[in-house]
């Protein structure tokens, strides 16, 4: 059974557009779970899409992407430990045949635990085609793996985007969870790295694709965006790279932030405050997440 998890943070118009694309799909998903991180009234969503089985899980406040997804994952796991769970950003759109494609894909390749999809931008350019990680340099980057040859219609990679990620519960003896230390950004990278280190297969395919309105939500507030991305980036480097690599990248980040300050103050201040928040958390001792 295929379930969807969508995290809402004042994104009702985008979610309505996404659900309209789901309505057109012949094979209706088992359930669509909307995790509501905002204080807005999302009842309008439910009243307009009675043909879909929708469930709203309300958080007390904005708890971030990973923690919100955890609420949905726990709910689904309590209902169905064999489910396929598709995490989707509100600013995505699906084709009418997508559920058939996803179900058929996992029937043929059940060995995959975490699957990323091809993600197009609105202008039909590839926005995500696989994630790579160089531990020696600390480089975390997206690469179009579909230009390479592969004996199967998927490519094993280091991480996939949480914008469109399918989790195969069949391979998990207990409910998979995102690290709650992340509020936003790099939680998908950490999720893939942790479970990959436990022997789970992480892959990306171009047989399933979505369209993504890039940064339609996060670009509303650039300072907040770069605050969260900087903190999460440093937290990730600390966890997955050697100290010399971490210190070098930290120094480069700070220097670049101050260079940006006169021309792009919102971005620069976001980076600086994110780095300061990381330092404070590091000094106070953020406990590592284990699952």
From TrEMBL:
Keywords: Glycosyltransferase, Transferase. Pfam families: Glycos_transf_2. Gene3D superfamilies: Spore Coat Polysaccharide Biosynthesis Protein SpsA, Chain A (3.90.550.10). The keyword Transferase applies. Pathway: Cell wall biogenesis; cell wall polysaccharide biosynthesis. InterPro entries: Glyco_trans_2-like (IPR001173), Nucleotide-diphossugar_trans (IPR029044). GO terms for molecular function: glycosyltransferase activity. Residues 4-129 form the Glycosyltransferase 2-like domain. It comes from the Bacteria. Belongs to the glycosyltransferase 2 family. This is Glycosyltransferase. It comes from Dactylococcopsis salina (strain PCC 8305).
């Amino acid at each position: 059974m295929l379930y969807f998890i969508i995290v809402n943070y004042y994104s009702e118009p985008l979610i309505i557009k996404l659900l309209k694309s789901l309505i057109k799909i012949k094979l209706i998903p088992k359930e669509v779970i909307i995790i509501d991180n905002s204080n807005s009234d999302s009842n309008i969503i439910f009243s307009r899409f009675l043909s879909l089985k929708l469930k709203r899980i309300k958080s007390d406040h904005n708890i971030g992407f990973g923690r919100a997804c955890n609420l949905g994952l726990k709910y689904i796991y309590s209902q169905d430990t064999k489910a396929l769970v598709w995490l989707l950003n509100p600013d995505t759109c699906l084709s009418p045949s997508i559920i058939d494609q996803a179900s058929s894909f996992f029937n043929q390749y059940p060995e995959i635990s975490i699957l990323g999809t091809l993600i197009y931008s609105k202008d039909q350019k590839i926005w995500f085609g696989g994630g790579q990680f160089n531990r020696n340099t600390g480089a975390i980057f997206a690469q179009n793996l579909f230009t390479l040859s592969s004996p199967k219609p998927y490519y094993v990679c280091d991480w996939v985007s949480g914008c469109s990620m399918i989790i195969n519960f069949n391979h998990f003896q207990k409910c998979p969870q995102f690290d709650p230390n992340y509020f936003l950004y790099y939680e998908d990278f950490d999720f893939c790295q942790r479970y990959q280190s436990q022997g789970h297969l992480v892959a990306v395919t171009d047989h399933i694709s979505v369209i993504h309105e890039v940064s339609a939500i996060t670009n509303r507030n650039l300072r907040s965006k770069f605050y969260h991305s900087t903190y999460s980036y440093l937290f990730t480097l600390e966890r997955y790279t050697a100290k010399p690599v971490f210190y070098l990248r930290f120094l480069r980040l700070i220097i670049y932030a101050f260079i940006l300050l006169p021309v792009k103050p919102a971005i620069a201040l976001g980076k600086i405050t994110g780095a300061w928040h990381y330092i404070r958390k590091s000094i106070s001792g953020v406990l590592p997440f284990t699952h």
